[in-house]
Amino acid sequence: QFNLVESGGGSVESGGSLRLTCAVPGYPYDTYSMAWFRQAEDKEREGVASIESDGTITYADSVKGRFTISEDSAKNIMFLQLNALKPEDTGMYYCGLAVSPLRDPLKADYMDYWGTGIPVTVLS
Q: Which has the closest alpha carbon to 70: 109, 111, 20?
């Protein structure tokens, strides 16, 4: 069992920036797939960006060029830099972890562990 600890988020004006952090203390394995997901009210959870242990990065089309995922693998921490935010980026953002690399890392069903979520609100 692993605890995913999220931080960051909040409210920002349209066009603004935020940074999210997800820490997985004590993760012992060399392989993983970690990703950020978001869920707007009355919508399904969708993958935003992922990073895998081999360095592969994947973005949803809706955030390409605006969001950047990165990691400090030595500290088991993942970051998501959100720039040029739009009102449609509003939602709860969740950190997900799978203990092996995935063919489709932005698919929520494949995650083994989840954080509790952190709100992001973009004001128009």
A: 20
